[in-house]
Structure formats: C-alpha cells, structure tokens
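>> received
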Amino acid sequence: PARLLELNISESELARRRANWQPPAPRYTKGVLAKYTKLVSSSSLGAVTDLDLF
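>> returned
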C-alpha cells in the first residue's frame, strides 16, 4: 500500500556498485530488433520510436 522500495545497503556499497557497473551488451546487433532497440524511447515516455531520426 505504501509503494515503497527500500535498498538496505550502505552508501559506500552503493557507490562501489555504481562505480563497477557496466551496461550489458546489446542482445540484438543487427536486424529489425536491433533497429528497434536503438530507436525506441523509454517505457515511461510511451516506448514509441523517434520518427525524427528517419
């Protein structure tokens, strides 16, 4: 009901994890799904493609 998400780690541990984090390699590197992943916006923005890029 409170819609609360808590991360129970120290600030130093969080800083260490952020410093070591690297984005994962793309799952699709060519084809339609690769184009889609490059052009789609965030789901919080509606997950639509940016038509200005074409």
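>> The two ends are 44 Å apart (CA to CA).
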